[in-house]
Amino acid sequence: MLAKLIRTFLCLTLVLCFAAPVFARAATAKIEYCTATVLPVSASDLSQCRWVERTALTLNQFLQPKKWVRIKTQDFFTESKTTQDIAIHVAPHFIATINLFREERDGIYVREATAGSLIADDKPYDMIGGYLFVTHSTPDQSTFLLQIETYLTGYVGIAVEPWPTSNIQSQLGLGLHLGALVLILLYASSSYLLSPNPLMGRFTLFLTCSFLSVLAGCGFLAHTFFINHPTFDLIVFAMISSARLALWVWLCQAFLEPYGKMHWYRMTCTLAYIISAICGLLSFGLRGEWIQPMLISGTALISVAQIVAVHRASGIDPQYRRLLTIGFSTIAIILLAMSATALLPVFPENMAIHIARITVILPILLIASLIIYQNRKTRDDLIAVRNELDAANIQRALKDKLHEERRMMMDMLTHELKNPLATISLATQSVTDQIDIPNPEVERRIFKINQAVSNMDAVIERCNLANMANEEELRVDRRTFNVQSLLEDLIDVLPTPDRVRLLPCTGFTTTLETDPYLIQIVFSNLLENALKYAYPDSMITVSIAQPNDRCLRISVSNQLDPTISPDPTQLFERFYRHPAAHRTSGTGLGLFLIKRLSMRLGGNIQSQMSDDTIAFHVELPK
To answer: Model-level pTM?
Structure first.
């Protein structure tokens, strides 16, 4: 409901801004501008003026900060009406000085009133949005002069109406304009407080600056805070206008910051910031004739740069890119329309004021729409990510449960298997002790039984180690030892030690500070794998190298039958075995255990395969 009320209010504001120039009463007086090469200094020196209507002015004449305007009110009078009070409206409020002269007799003018932003005692004529002069006109005294000195812009709007007149439409338009800004500002600030993010924060600051700019431009600040120091109002208005450009650039940057940095775009924004800073400094010197073109140039520069940057930025969703392009292109067109109405004399007198109001409201509405779209898209992305995270958490919980159940099952199996194996070992030992007469056949069978029991013990121990390594429960007992000596001892106890060749190493020490028990498991498994899967009677090569001062690399290589060449992507997976390798005994845990133990010790293992050779390289920190 509140959102509908806000939308209705904003639509009404825009309709009134557009309709105001249409429904405004046409001026019944003749308004002309002096086009002399050198403008006269006083009202008594107007003979050199050539008076033309506003639409006949050249661009240079229209933008001159100093103007002489002649107002003729003969059309107010009829045969039955020979006297008339008239109201002369002059806008905008930030005009430096206005002098009103009345023609007393032919060519003789007398100053009747003085007002302007630089005049402290202009309260009878000062009003929100401009200045109002009420005077008396007769057929003999129907000509008035306005000596005007503008600030920031050469634009000035003049309207003459019979008095009393109603100014409610202008006041209502300004009130709706300020009300719309307040509503949007409240919405933006509350959204930022509820869910802070850089884009909404910058938008809130820009809205605040725009609101203050309107208050300063319409004269509200001068009426409220700078009653005795009217010059401050001009300075504050120029400074706020300069800051508004900087905040606009900062806001535009927020739309593209998530999509990478473009050097040329950053340099363009920096140039716009410099223009804004220069305009702020010029405001202290009241050099309004320089500030306006610089602000227009900076705004045009960043508008074009923003549209080009949207097209060149990478990673933007295509639909969002189109919306950004349409939004910023529309804003650029609106700013161009405002500049045209303020700079070109062909438009109606008060058109620039109404376009300026639209220029403030529409870009803010477009930016707010882009922010709302982005927030909704971000919210949808967050919901999707949250759903994926929930699914991942469920899968992880299931995986953890499976791991726990597998660990419990392995613990139970190893416990249940170890007792029968111990019983079998005791039974074979008892049988051996009771044999008095040597019997080769019985001894051979007992040896096979003991060997089977030993193999089963090794499998159970390997499963236990694999579970502990997978759960990272292994305790590392670090000691200093010589890995070359450890490898020599392991090779000596192999069934066929003559098939393993340990290459000599010189120029570096082969000592490690790690757990010798776990290292022994790593390389005993590697050597057993090499003997098991290598060509019969082929040599296994073991070498030690030192890639750098911080680690040692131990390599084990052997020739491999291409028919049982493993898949490199699954080589270290748990229980992986080549389908053709099942004729050889094994559990598929050896390489999985080796990788886990190597990582637990702070090292790593890599495999390297060629046509008929496979090599494993274990790197361990010293």
So the answer is: 0.61
